[in-house]
């Protein structure tokens, strides 16, 4: 095995190793992104462990979170504790989007791509 392959394997194992300090929302998001890296038995064990850590409500909130735009996901992740209910996650996403919209409006940034120098109707990114 090549060195980079081994390093990547270790990195992925760390990402998917059970961690007792995970919040319920972190476990739900990890559950959403879980893929088999090693054996089927290892994958099944991680799958069952994560499944046991999350409620249906938190699972639905994580589904909503994973589907959000990266920019909104990043902002929500940086705001401290993430909401563990779907209603709370929707509220946080709307607030975050409103904040981003206001920042762009005040900074005269394009609403489409977030960059200065043009407005949304002239944005090349939409093409």
UniProtKB/TrEMBL annotation:
GO terms for molecular function: nucleic acid binding; zinc ion binding. Keywords: Metal-binding, Zinc, Zinc-finger. InterPro entries: Znf_CCHC, Znf_CCHC_sf. Gene3D superfamilies: Zinc finger, CCHC-type. It comes from the Eukaryota. PROSITE patterns: ZF_CCHC (PS50158). Pfam families: zf-CCHC. The keyword Zinc-finger applies. Residues 110-125 form the CCHC-type domain. This is CCHC-type domain-containing protein.
């Amino acid at each position: 095995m090549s060195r980079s392959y081994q390093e990547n394997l270790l990195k992925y194992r760390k990402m998917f190793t059970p961690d007792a300090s995970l919040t319920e929302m972190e476990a739900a998001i990890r559950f959403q992104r879980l893929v088999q890296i090693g054996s089927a038995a290892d994958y099944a064990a991680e799958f069952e462990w994560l499944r046991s850590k999350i409620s249906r409500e938190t699972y639905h909130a994580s589904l909503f979170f994973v589907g959000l735009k990266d920019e909104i996901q990043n902002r929500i992740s940086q705001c401290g504790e993430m909401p563990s209910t779907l209603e709370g996650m929707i509220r946080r996403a709307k607030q975050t989007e409103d904040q981003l919209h206001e920042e762009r409006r005040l900074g005269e940034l394009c609403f489409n791509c977030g960059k200065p120098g043009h407005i949304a109707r002239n944005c090349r990114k939409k093409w």
